[in-house]
Design a protein that fits this description.
This protein has helices at 57-71, 87-99, 113-121, 141-151, 165-181, 197-209, 231-236, 242-245, 266-280, 286-300, 326-331, 335-342; strands at 29-31, 42-47, 80-84, 103-107, 125-128, 156-157, 188-192, 214-220, 260-264, 307-312. With 351 residues, the chain is of the alpha/beta class. The strands form 2 sheets. It has a 6-stranded mixed beta sheet with strand order 1-2-10-7-8-9. It has a 4-stranded parallel beta sheet with strand order 5-4-3-6, with helices on both faces. β4, α3 and β5 form a beta-alpha-beta unit. α1 crosses α2. Bound molecules: pyridoxal-5'-phosphate (PLP). Residues 85, 87, 192-199, 285, 287, 313-314 line the site of pyridoxal-5'-phosphate.
Length: 351
């Protein structure tokens, strides 16, 4: 049982801001209590859904737009083009609206309806694109982005997987925040990997402060699609020849910073998301839950002085139509999980 606080927090600062952009970064760390009972190490979660647009990608949205304006890639009124899973596009669209840069998003077909609707609220143009075909295929999101950039004078395709201002955002904010919040006591940083911006930037910063800090990149089971044929998979399994394939990697994945890669299955992660919600009151997106699962395994064999910081990119709310939805679970091969956390299907009102 957690002791209830006797009162609300003291007002520590005025917390009055001139712009929503001042509400990017400086997110809280919270300690895990129930799930770490009996484990030697301390585990903190960095809650990046506290950013104004709801995810860690506000950090890169802000830094990418700032740097692109400064280096001239993004001229006055130019259109920002980006592909991806939604969070980055939201961060870019939000910042772009405030700097006078409209957005075009090449969205994957299964982009969550909540993110799609938020992008529409922000006025972004949405063009469907695919990620399940080779990136040279004209239907691939990257090919569509490139064609849009060529056709639209003054527009700029961001390419978050290779642009330096992505990891730099985390080098300049996430890393220093964690270092300061733990007073330099952090021993491990655990974060999910996609473009590599978070792990390379925040992990890289922490390792410059203390080269002993372990940087653990987490990913969904690499034997599952779409990872099976990826170079991350080949590296994870230490298959010979992967070095030659590094040219296909997102440039922002810095292998020298990563000390370990850990994978978990989607089923393990979804199941644990419900346990996490009930035990700790943390409602977090699957990539965050994945990292917490890995961190708890790490904590079980850690030293008592170890301080593990897990990065949480976003909130559970964006996934209640899918991974955290009873009907979706039953229809997508996770009936056992649905049964465990929602009870039997019979006689229920379906929604
Ligand atoms: C929810 C979520 N978690 C984790 C990541 C991975 O972050 P990064 O691209 O910095 O590796 C992303 C970004 O794609 C994301 O949207």
């Amino acid at each position: 049982m957690t002791d209830l606080p006797r009162r609300f927090p003291e007002v520590s600062a005025r917390r009055v801001y001139d712009s929503v952009l001042d509400l990017v970064g400086d997110t809280p760390l919270v300690r895990l209590n129930a799930l770490t009972q009996g484990l030697p190490a301390t585990v903190y979660v960095k809650l990046d859904h506290y950013n104004i647009g709801g995810s860690s990608k506000d950090r890169i949205g802000l830094n990418i737009v700032r740097e692109a304006i400064a280096d001239g890639s993004l001229g006055e009124g130019a259109r920002i083009i980006e592909t991806g899973q939604g969070n980055t596009s939201l961060g870019l669209a939000l910042v772009g609206n405030l700097t006078g840069h409209p957005s075009t998003v090449i969205a994957k077909p299964d982009l969550s309806t909540s993110k799609l609707n938020l992008l529409k609220m922000l006025g972004a143009e949405i063009i469907p694109g695919r990620f399940d075909v080779d990136h040279t295929d004209p239907e691939h999101a990257w090919a569509i982005a490139e064609a849009k950039e060529t056709r639209t004078p003054g527009s700029w395709w961001v390419r978050q997987q290779e642009i330096a201002s992505n990891p730099d955002a985390h080098r300049l904010s996430t890393g220093p925040e964690i270092w300061s919040q733990t007073a330099g006591a952090v021993t491990h940083f655990v974060a999910a990997i996609a473009t590599g911006g978070t792990v390379s930037g925040a992990g890289g910063y922490l390792r410059t402060q203390n080269p002993e800090v372990g940087v653990v990149a987490t990913t969904f089971d690499l034997d599952e699609k779409p990872w099976k044929e990826s170079n991350l998979n080949k590296t994870f399994h230490r298959l010979p020849g992967y070095e030659e394939l590094e040219k296909d990697w997102p440039d922002n994945i810095d292998l020298d910073t990563i000390t370990r890669i850990e994978a978990r299955t989607k089923a393990e992660v979804i199941d644990f998301a419900f346990r996490l919600a009930r035990a700790e009151g943390l409602l977090l997106g699957p990539s965050s839950v994945l990292s917490i699962l890995v961190a708890l395994d790490l904590a079980a064999t850690a030293q008592p002085s170890d301080v593990i910081v897990v990065f949480s990119a976003d909130h559970a709310r964006d996934y209640t139509h899918a991974e955290y939805n009873e009907q979706w679970l039953r229809a997508n091969g996770f009936a056992e999980i649905a049964e465990r956390w929602f009870g039997p299907a019979e006689g229920k009102v379906q929604r």
